[in-house]
Every structure is written in structure tokens, then in C-alpha cells.
Amino acid sequence: MTPSRGTPATPDADTKDRPLTDPQAGTASRPGADSPSGAESGPGAEARPGGEGVAGTEARPGTEARPGAEGRPGAEGQAGAESRPDTPGTTLALTPPAELRAHLTARLGTAARAWLHRALDEAAAHPGTHGPISVWELRIAEAGRRCGPEHADAARVLILHAARADADAVTRVYFQGTAAERRAVLHALPHLVPGPEALPLVEDALRTNDTRLLAAAVGPYAARYLDPHQWRHAVLKCLFTGVPVDAVADLDRRAHRDAELARMLGDYAAERTAAGRPLPEDLHRVLTFTDPTATPPAPAADCGTRGTDGKES
What we know:
The chain is mainly alpha-helical.
């Protein structure tokens, strides 16, 4: 039984924003985290004995207060405003780690860039899991405060990759992490897990109503390994929770000539129409992909091993 890191998984505060832009949830402190006094903000950003907030920075639930020394020109925003990442979730899952690191370090300030380099070096020097908690897991918890919420997902994906986290390690991080950390794990799966061993994490995320977690769950890993039944229901869940179908990786290929998905979409449309409710704009787009007379989409560059696209096994 792996001891918990003491941070329950908490959904992000604002789930109505666009799911492909992932504002970072507040991150609670972990035992042994190497952080300056008063610089760390947990959920609710309540002050702790001996720790004063950063002057002029007001932390709200779901928003991390960042030390002023780590800010970048133009990146701080107004007090109380949530920052957004410049790397969408699906891009995080598809961008090679070396390219992602270059993209991120070019956008970080001096202190944040130095912290990221140290964190990646530590993870590479001590990969895998060690004892109740590994040092790189602590750095994952710190990433939002150190790099800023708009860059935290990318930093966490890079740390997971540097630590060579396998299916067991990402499962541990996922179930012991915050919603923000869970998103990063889902983005990192295509880089780390070559088989379907991490599907339980995707299935868990698809059971939530956190739109940003859902958007991360329907990325390339789900496109590669979810069976047709689960994948169809994931598409439907995106439609009725408002997650844009642009978040669904490889949608055109998996939906092509899928008569069962077309039937499910038709039933869903009929139910909403009978209830006097508007249809999601994306519904007709997905229906178009299911048209058996449509031209098949070109093969994806990284289509992986799915084997059952659009067909019942």
C-alpha cells in the first residue's frame, strides 16, 4: 500500500472555461517540499503560521500565488486573474519532449527556468519511484508555483518524462495528485506508456464532470487504446458537457463510417429536441464524420495500435 502524499484529488474551481486551456488548480504542499517560506499556496490559499503571502498578490481557490521574483514580463496579469497556458492539452500530448522543453524554457523567467532545469536533472538522476515519495513527485507538486499556472502542465509532463515514469508510477501520481496533476499525467501518457496499461486512468477521468480533465482524457492515448464502446461514450460525454470535439484526438478516423456512433448521436439529438433543448454545435460535425459515403481521412502520423476503430470487436 503506497502512503498517500496527503493531497486529495480536488476538481478545479472553474470548469466552464475552454477545456483546452488549462488554468492550474491550487497545489497543496507535500511533505519535504523544498520551497521558500510563505511562497506556497494550497487550495484556498489560506495563510499558514510563519508564511506571509506575496505582497500585492491575492490568491483565490483554484489559483496559485506566485512569488514576484518568478514572474515574466506580461505574464503576471491582474491580481485574481487566472492565467492560461499557451500550449493546448492535445499539443502537450503530441509534442516531442525535447521540442516541448525548448518551447517552455523560452517562455520562462530566469528563476523559473533554473528551477525547471534542476527539477529535470533531479528526475533524470533518480528516475522511477523511491520510498513513500520521490523527489520528482515533489517537483510536480511545486510546478504551478514555480513556473506559473499557464506553464505548469508542460513542466509536469517534462518532469514525468525525465523521471521515466512507467504505468505504475503515473498511476501513483494520478491517484494521489490534484486535478491539475492528473491532467498532466493524462497529457504525458502517450510519451510514457507504450501499451494499454494506463487505461484505468483515462476511464477514471471520463467518469468526472471536470471539463478540463475530460479534455485531457480524450487525447492520443485514448484514441489509441479505448475500445469502440468506451470511445463512443467519451465522444458523447464531450458533447453533453461542452468539451469541444477538437479535444478528441483522431476523431475523424475513429468516427469514420461508425454506424453505431451515428445511431447514438441520433438518439441523443432526438432526446434533446423532444425536451426543447438546443443541440450542441459539434454534434452535426461528428455526425458528418460517421457518413459512410465520406472520403476516408488520411492515416495519422502516430496512429498507434488500435485495431478496432469504429467497429465492434
